[in-house]
Amino acid sequence: MKKQLQLLFVLLLLLGTQAGFAQTKVVTGTVNDTDGLPLPGVNVIVQNTNRGTQTDFDGNYSIEVSEGEVLVFSYVGYSKETVPVGADDTINIILQEDASQLEEVVVVGYGTQSKRNLTDNVAKLTSEDIDEVPVPSIQSTIAGKAAGVQISPTNGKVEGGVNIRIRGIASIGAGSEPLYVLDGVPLINNNESNNGAPTNPLLTLSSNEIASIDILKDASAAAVYGSRGANGVVIITTKKGANKKASFSMNYSYGMSEPTHTRDWLNAEQYIELFTEAATNSGYLDYAEGRFDRLSAGTDWRNGEIDTDWQDLAFQDGHVQDANLSVSGGNEKTTYFFSGAYNDTKGIVRGNNLERINGRVNVNHNFSDRFKIGMNMAFSRTDIDRIADDNAFTTPLQAIAQAPISPAYLENGEPNPNTLYANFLLEDKYAYYKTIIRRVTGRAFAEYQFTDFLRFNTDFGYDLYYQTEDNFRGKKTPFQSTNGSAYASSVGTESYVSSNYFTFSRVLNDIHDVEVVAGMEYNQSNRRFQDVTGVQFPSDDFQTVSSAAEITGGSGAESSNRFLSYFARLQYSLMDKYLFKASVRRDGSSRFGKDVRYGTFPAISAGWILSEEDFLNDSDVLSFLKLRASYGETGNANIGNYASLGLFGAISYNQKPGIAPVQAPNPELTWESVKQTDIGLEYGFLDSRISGELDYYIKRSDGLIFNEPLPGTSGYTSVTRNIGLLENKGFEFVLNTRNIQTDKLTWNTNFNISKNHNEIKELPDGEDVVSGENILREGEPLSAFYLIEYAGVDPDNGDALYYVDGKGSATTNDPNEASRVIAGKPYADWIAGLTNTVYYSGLDFTFTFVGEWGASIYNGGGVYQSANADWFDNQTVDQLRRWQEPGDITDIPQARLAGGNGTATSTRYLQNSDFIRLRNLTLGYSLPEDFTDQMGIEKFRVYFTGINLLTFTNYDGYDPESTSDAGFGPGVTFYSAPAVKTMSLGVNINF
Asked: Which of 297, 707, 791, 893 could anchor a disulfide with 800, C-beta 3.0 to 4.6 Å?
């Protein structure tokens, strides 16, 4: 009987348990904002329990609950929602913004995080910051928007490289560009140009497809990217669909472009006056007049028959045409985003144009409450009409050196071939250089939710960068000694990346918020290059290498590299006010020596939200205050392939093949290591009407990669080694204000300013490294200018003077007797940005100013173009201010033809490049809703956009931001095109 009762008790217990299980079910849903966009990272908690979960990147969640329990949805910046669980298995939520708490979510490596709980320094830009800015490069749209992030275009060419520096330059011999990650895929960012001037590989991206850009500035944020995060990380997230009906967006704009600045050059009358005087002073008058006869091509130079404005011929009126169309939408199962874009940019320099098409497809699909997949795919084709690099005589801007007395064209309409230097018009008419970049980027991903708190993600990414270059130079082009020549090249780089990681995320006892991410990643890149050159063509009608009578050169190369990585990150929040984060990445790279191929990159950070403490949370003035600190280590693997290996190359001896050593091995070569410490304070006052942050950082780059010279007896010229130490330190200040917030008028301001001090701490054997006008020296800024000091003009005789040992010392008229000194630096101490955004009754007005202070530019062309008529190059008009008689006080020496008076490389041609520039301005008007409703559309907006409309600077060269693209040292300009000023009108329609 006793056993029967025990059996009955067990049976009843099982039935009761099954009945309890029967009442438990899985509830799923999506959390969106009022615009229908998904909200990632929303806390979904069962009220009065420690059970909970978070929404994923697409706003989806899944949780086990029982009927009658209450779900609480909370998200920083939004009002809390509570919903009782009923019979429905799906609960979709729309959260309303709470303006008093609103904070954005930032994208970090392998996940997202609320900026409120962030312990790192991450700057976020949204699509509103980068939309409708008519420039081909997405990097240029960032300028002035993020503290400590400097954006500098190389020059005004449409394809010109863009330099982005995050908290200064962290390397000397390795790459200094940040890592770009597009939807989780590290992008290929190699300059593959073969015409001497770099191209910007990110030209292939269109801003209309971008949802946000998150810039990871400190090492704690970037350390999860390990060996490639030393220069910071730029995470680009593209747009995606949402659970709503299909919506279409169309944008079209057209604008005109011109140089931001042109220079004044001597006209024909001034040219004859100055050079006649210079020839007289040097005793070369007869010679000079003979040159005038030749340069004028038989025209009457004495009476000013020809007065050619070569600068006007070099520049052209440019334009920018932008068009894009996108459609997005979806349902609970599937969301989608499709877009297409077209850009047509005619540059301001003659012969320089760009045309680009883009297409993108982003699709997400939920197979079940636990399993979802997605795909991002994009294609672009960019066609660029190139011109020669700044150091080539045939580049248009070097035409300013031509004499104004020379006709540009002959009477028969042909370009004049008998000018002082090669006439670029011959190159423009009888040659072309075409670069075509085709790019495919894609990512397929899947996510499986094992439990409410554990999920697994697997991603596969692909990036194909394929470029062809074709150059033909006809028989009439300058320096052509054959009947035409042609060059063709192709390069294809493929990058595959596979990422697999687990995410554990759970809230315990309502006070412990824990997230752990752990996984691995494999990345392989393969590159193949080939080129061929041919000469002797039957006529200029045949322009491909296949028509050449003789193949004179060709080459080919293949290379690859691989990264294998393991990473983990822990984020912990106690009571939503004590914050902690730790991460580590273990990277292995085939680029480094076999003994040091693996490196470990740890990081740790912490934060304290003081405003949540009892002694501050009742303050009527202080609404938010957070103190944070971080330390982390990152690496720089940007050195190219096989740098650690001993390499042999093929040679020919007496027409017999052979091999010879070409590179010395270094099995101890490893990545540069960057250690960074950051201390930050984030604040908010008056219900966050005033907010911002203040940061101080120290960033030390150790094991700098150098090519160290070797003695000739070794059989090698140099070996690549880790030697040297570089330090960047500085502070950043950000101030955001909501100046006016009413139903009709809002006015918001963002101001940021940062200071960076750069110093070389150690060099190989402590020895200086001098290259052209720049020097690397311990205790000095990176690539400081190293020049003799110009001391002006001797008022007695018009001689140019130089300080023997720098300012304040004795002077000499012999530059060989003067010693070089540190005279300036190419990188700014201070950078700043100011953005104002105003909305009033359908009107929107936004403008951004940027500024830089503390840098200098050396005009490498000054020794020819501002040389008091030393040779026959045309001169800047300030040379008319030359010394002419004893007692004259001026900074321009006496004009002496071929006299070398003042033409030494010196500080005469070094100038401060401080500037403030109105980077962009947008004024728009949206039709009232009553009107658009009648038209059956959601939005109709017309707008005006201006780029580089105003520049305030004392720099008298072409542009304070433009430097040479021909491989000269940092901060050196050489016939470099100025930045572009663009004014566009556009229309944006949503329906």
From this structure: 893
Model's pTM, two decimal places?
A: 0.88
Q: What's the CA gap between 272 and 927, in Å, rounded? A: 60
Options 1.10.760.10, 3.40.50.720, 2.60.40.1120, 2.40.50.100; CATH for 27-102 is 2.60.40.1120
φ and ψ of 585, to 5 deg: -135, 135
Token pair for 309: 């404005």
DSSP H helix total and E strand total for the chain? 9, 53
pLDDT at 103 (0 to 100): 56
Distance (Å, whole) CA 290 – CA 285? 9
* 146/232 Cα distance (integer angstroms): 13
Give me the residues paired with residue 163 across strands: 152
Q: Cα(46)–Cα(23) distance, rounded to whole angstroms?
A: 15
Q: Return the closest-CA partner of residue 86 out of 58, 113, 108, 66.
A: 66
Architecture of the 139-262+314-636+657-783+825-855+913-990 domain: Beta Barrel (2.40)
- DSSP-assigned states of every residue in 537-597: -S-TT--SGGG-SEEEEEEEEEEEEEEEEEEEEEEEEETTTEEEEEEEEEEEETTS-TTS-
Tell me how far apart the alpha carbons of residues 273 and 840 are, in angstroms, rounded to a whole number: 59
Residue ranges per structural domain of the chain: 27-102, 139-262+314-636+657-783+825-855+913-990
Pairing type for strands 856-859 and 972-973 reads parallel
pLDDT tens for residues 458-484? 999 999 999 999 999 999 999 998 999
Q: What is the C-alpha separation between 49 and 510, in angstroms, rounded?
A: 8
List own/partner pairs for 308-311 with CB under 8 A and 24 or more apart.
Answer: 308/268, 308/402, 308/404, 308/405, 308/406, 308/407, 308/408, 309/265, 309/404, 310/265, 310/399, 310/400, 310/401, 310/402, 310/404, 310/408, 310/874, 311/262, 311/263, 311/265, 311/399, 311/400
Nearest to 424 by CA among 469, 384, 390, 393: 393
Q: Is the pLDDT of residue 102 over 70?
A: no
How far lies 103's CA from each of 30, 77, 100, 118, 684, in Å? 20, 5, 9, 11, 11
| pLDDT tens digits, 847-893 | 999 999 999 999 999 999 999 999 999 999 999 999 999 999 999 99
Residues 923-963: tens digit of each pLDDT = 999 999 888 888 889 899 999 999 999 999 999 999 999 99
Q: What is the DSSP letter of 282?
A: H
Is residue 442 a contact partner of residue 461, using CB atoms and an 8 Å limit? yes
Does the CA dihedral 384-385-387-388 come out positive or negative?
positive
The predicted model gives 354-383 an average pLDDT of: 95
